[in-house]
What does this fold into?
Amino acid sequence: MTADIHDISVTVNGTSYRRQVEGRLLLSDFIRHDLLLAGTHVGCEHGVCGACTIIFDGAAVRSCLMFAAQADGHDIMTVEGLAPDHERLHPLQQAMRECHGLQCGYCTPGILMTMKVFLEENPAPDEAQIREALSGNLCRCTGYQHIVEAVQLAAERLRK
Amino acid sequence: MKPAPFRYIAARSLDQALRLKAEWGDEARFLAGGQSLVPTMNFRLTQPAALIDINPLAELSGLRNGGRLLSIGALTRYRMLERDPKVGRHLPLIAEALPHIAHPQIRNRGTIGGNLAHADPASEMPAIVVALGGRLRAQSLRGERWIDAADFFVGALTTALHADEMLTEVELPAVPQRTGCCFMEVSRRRGDFAMIGVACTLQVDESGRCAAARIALCNAGDGPVFAAEASQSLVGRAIGAADIKEAADLVQRAIDPGGSIHASKEFQRHLAGVLTGRALAAANERARRDR
Amino acid sequence: MNVVATRNFGAPVTRNEDARLLSGQALFVDDVELPGMVYAAFLRSSVAHARIRSIDVSAARARDGVVAVYTAEDLGSYWAPGPLLVPPPPIKDIVFNQRTQVPLARDKVRHVGEPLAVVLAHSRYLAEDALADIAVDLDPLPAVVDLERAAADDAARVHDDVRGNVAARVWQGRGNYAAARARAARVVGRRFRYDHGCSSPIETRGVVANWDARANRLTIWDTTQAPVFFRNGIAAMLGLSERQVRVIAPFVGGGFGPKIMLFYPEEVVIPWAAKKLNRPVKWIEDRLEHFFATTHERGQTHDAEIAVDADGRILGVKDVFLHDTGAYNPYGLTVPINSQCTLLGPYAIANYDSTFTAVFTNKPIVTPYRGAGRQHGVFVIERLLDIAAHELKIDRAEIRRRNLIPPDAFPYNNEIIYQDFAPLSYDSGNYQPILDKALEMIGYRRFLADEQPRLRAQGRNVGIGVACYVEGTGIGPYEGAKVQVQANGKVSLATGIGTQGQGHFTAFAQIVADQLGVDVRDVDVVTGDTDQFYWGAGTFASRGAVVAGNAVNEAAKVVRQKILKLAAEHFECAEEDLEIADGKVAVVGVPGQSVALGALALKANPMRGAVKPGTEPGLESTQYFGPPSGATASGVHAMIVEVDPQTCTLEVRKYVVVHDCGTVINPLILAGQIHGGVAQGIGNAFYEQLVFDEDGQLLNASLADYLLPTALEVPHMELAHTVTVSPLNPLGIKGAGEAGAIPVGPLFAQAIEDALGLLHNNIELNEIPLSPSRLFELTAKPATAR
It folds into this structure.
């Protein structure tokens, strides 16, 4: 069949992009290879590992389970949009660094996106709630403990 | 793991979506949340020739409280159900099950209609709508029809929907007075498919005897299983441990679990008995509290 | 005196590399985008064992968007079985049959997923479309799956000329087991099955190759743990000089062992294709492929027995085991040798008789994965001790205590050959304090005396477990490092070893910062780029910090001496009168008399004048470190678990690790390594299992069904450390990368047995992994049907 091409207009990290995409192009591939925002990582392409998690219209979603064409007219935030500017890190990023919440860093962007929304909706979570919120993101390096500490630290700072 | 080629069509109206589905038939699939469909497409286990994206159809989303009955649009995302206080109040069985359904990111996109139409025998929601005795609305260019939950799930990954039909609405009875509900499952990790799940409702009358009981299970067969005999066995009794045990034994005998790499058939059958006992005890206690 | 300030060494310094990783600015292999790049997809066998009758790629070649399709035939003389990475160790009477993997299957396929052909197209999407166009005619053969049946003389043969699928047979021992057995008060013998899963890093593998015909250079980005060895091998294969090839292992998303396997088919084919097409080629493994295309660890079956005296002291151990090596054995015998050696643990076992047969099967290749076979051996000895303790009515912790090697017995020579080809000698250790500390932290006595009886009376099933192990770490051959003070005052450090998350950018910087008196943030580390550092082995066997760390230290020390020498000349004073701190060299007690390191570096590289013969320009040094043998780390894990006897699900209530890895460079990084190892150990013990059917099909090739632990399955862990400094390297450090993963299996078995009171009902848990369903099977049936 001839390629199925669509015009899309999508806002990513505050910037508006107009592109032409094949209907079957996964949103994760669009972000990484068309927009060259390679901070969002791909780990499984079946929606389990969470490495590809982005914020879509304010909700944390798996970008590997969406098509770029679906993003037309919508708003996306990726890890590149998390820090307020080049000089400063977001409190979550800062806390992850201080608590050694990342090792290889591959699952980290997905966790940052998930936790950003989680903390906005749950500003004072306990450890059990944090672990439950984290359970949709797989990490093979850290054993999660330092990530939990980082989220607790970030929550505390964000509340101030 | 990239999907095979297909035509992507963003539906502009329900009418257009139905017309497209009538044209393409089984060659096209509706794209709702995509949380079940897209993984199978990425594995190339499913290769539809066309995807009709119904996410733009906002009218298919929403929860309406009609008093005795609640109506949930098929495109309603699980995340919305998690946040709507009406669900906790009138559909406590769903509220209790939601944290077990996949993970928050999946629930942000996944829809109740998509989940039901996918009809995975291990899925929680089919068992719940069967336990509640709900109805599902199927629409096509030819018109519409209501299908009882008991008749909707025909087999593994198969529903009673015709090739040109779309599931557009789920109608569920609000929990009546003096009714306790309970959903329980055992899975390998939180959010995984249940090895066995039990959804039950138990209503008592003024004298404390059981007026109605409904028990349904997930992953106990090739679709949600309604345990009719076990449910009936409780009616009229002042429920005690012995009655619950009897019902649990009846459930064990009624089901035909398929077994999997995660749980042997014998283990599933054993779990069905254990969970039925625990869920009925909890439902019974909740029913008594709700007087 | 110019004492080295140890501000950074031993401190929980936050990592230099994190800002980039946290903001999505770190380069991973799939982030490499090159103009004109084509994308590869491999056609993989869907059957485990078959003869190849024909492969017809003509339709695939004709598809729009396909640039090329290659089979083994197209590779011509380039096609060859891969090199043997680790030769068999020098053990008497060893039997070893080398059979290594090939770039694309020819004549025969030997496991599901073995590559048959490669498609190169304008996108991965198109390449995958074209795979369906390829017509493969296979003649299926009986699949060799079960270990014991594979070892039978008349079994189907994975390799036609290898009878009984014997990849190797090895006997090692010490003392006289038969004599020991004869005088034993008790002999406990059992069959044990230990299955270890696959590494499943969140980043799969990938290779990008770019041949620049005009510069006559090949650049390869690869998710490898061994960039230098890979560069050397691929250059030789392609007929290029090593200097023509640059291998870059950028940020790698988790290694854990299988990314050090070398000359994977894809690693051999992709650079060749790039050179042939004169276009950059990218191959990124998807998750489905990862289950077949990247190596596993898997199973062993042990028939083992322990001979003890009436007090539970070990007189001897005998073990006969089968090891599944998969379809090929490029990594030699590292995994089973580790099992064989690590079984001895921290215990004084004077008599040991161990035989193993490594068996070919029609399954993916087995190579080391975090723990690298140590788990299997540790499971056997820990279980034997538990059963012996039960039979002799000795407390489980006590029987271990009685057998620990005493602290005055080091270096302790176990005589048998270890994976580094040297006799297994423990350089240092003090095991009793570790056990004591673990028991104290878990509250062992109090739990058994008070908590457990109290909770049992309430109908709750709680149990406690304790497991001990040692780990040979920090083996050679060597690593190197180049340290250089730059004109801007920053210090650059290059080493051949790569990074997969261990914090090398920081740990090594800490060492340099202390030697050269600079801020750890001013040390710029480059790893994993063969153009930046020529020599090295790689990250494996818990050796990075030990071997590369010491090389870094040696290089920094030499640079320090050069700084002092040059500064002394500059100030016309004695070296003893100088101190280096805060990026400057200053004369002690004379304020204002100081020179910045950067200025000194400029001085060392004059544009005029002369550099004295026998000296070098700049403030730079390259040094190597190669320990003669490994340093032995050790530890104890303890756990309290609660089991629901009806659902057979469990919850870990408390988890303790006490660990000795010698001197600690960065306690934060060390804790992270332990946590991560334990998490993988928990996966191994109770969640992860590669399930093969009798046709060699993997039934759970997805993350939905291959169960990695999440934040809800991994508990909070409490850590403590003891330090026995290693005498084998100047920094006194021992490796720590694998420790967390090693003893978790026997710990779970023991604690679950305790929680459910299984031993009293003659039910034992002698296999890993366990699961609720398996526990149900084992506990629901009568004791005789085990």
